[in-house]
Amino acid sequence: MSDRPTILVVEDERETAAMLTTFFEGEGYAIHWASWGADALRITQDVQPDLIVLDIRLPDIDGYEVCRRMRAQRRTEHVPIIFLTERRERVDRLSGLELGAVDYITKPFDIQELRLRVRNALRRARYETLVDPITGLASEPLISEKLSSLTRQQGWAVLCVGVDGLDKFADEYGFVARDDAVRALALVLSNTASEGSPDPDSHFIGQLDSGHFVIVVGAGLVHDLREKLATRLKQAVNYFYPAKDRYADASKRPSLRLSLGAVTTSDGPFASPDEVKTAALNALTAL
């Protein structure tokens, strides 16, 4: 999320849309506006909003369907959505919340209340960006913070784990199966690292992106950890697949290609977290 959060307003009433745009721009937000559901879906292909204010009654497809489609897309599946609507029935509210909306506000509304609800939703979303929503592991901001501290220390190692082929895996089995595979991989990493260094403060695990993980340990532990991970991952990779294909001919299923690499203090000096990450990624070799 940038320092100037972006809000997508999906509202077909021009006066309401203009009021929301003027108000939230005055609060320091960047605003995009769509009056049709299809336009909102198109905008999110080019713009990554930090929050969406979504009317339910739209001229083409209703807000529930817009929300459903956004939740089915990787780019927008975790973007907070606030429904803003005339519908006051309990069943309407429940329908919106069941689709994953973070809030439901009925018209007419208090603009100051909406301001606070938007602020709170963005604060929650900002916190959630510190951990990966699929695995719960530390994400890039916390990784950079950790690696930054390493550049001023000695006696550390960063083990990098990569998995390629996730896009084709998702094409074949769907995003749910893909997320299950990533979670399973993260669990293998966490369990193996914990066995090698049972003190929770002696290792750190983070997820750089959907296909790359880092484990920070003492330099003296990295060799054994690497060997254990190589063995465990080779044993576990079949179980990342849906049951029907776990023991299928490898040439007839999408391939998940695993790799490992490590850097230590002696590979430096490193002046920045990015230098550590680049060195760890460049050290990856296929299992």
According to CATH, the fold-level topology of the largest domain is: Alpha-Beta Plaits
Give the oligomeric state: single chain
What structural class do helix, strand and pairing data support?
alpha/beta
Averaged pLDDT, please?
A: 89
Shape: globular
Fraction in helix? 40-55%
- Helical segment count: 10
* C-alpha end-to-end distance: 35 Å
Proportion of strand residues: 15-25%
Order of helices and strands: EHEHEHEHEHHEHHEEHEHE
The CATH architecture category of the largest domain equals 2-Layer Sandwich
> Over all CA atoms, what is the radius of gyration?
23 Å
* Fourth-level CATH superfamily of the largest domain: Reverse transcriptase/Diguanylate cyclase domain
Number of domains: 2
Q: What's the story with the biggest beta sheet?
A: 5 strands, parallel
Count of β-strands: 10
Write the layout of secondary structure elements.
Blueprint: E1 6-10, H1 14-26, E2 30-34, H2 37-46, E3 51-54, H3 63-71, E4 81-85, H4 90-98, E5 103-106, H5 111-128, H6 140-150, E6 156-164, H7 166-173, H8 175-196, E7 204-209, E8 212-218, H9 222-236, E9 257-264, H10 273-282, E10 285-286
Parallel strand pairs: 1-2, 1-3, 3-4, 4-5
Antiparallel strand pairs: 6-8, 6-9, 7-8, 9-10
Helix pairs in contact: 2-3, 6-10, 7-8, 8-9
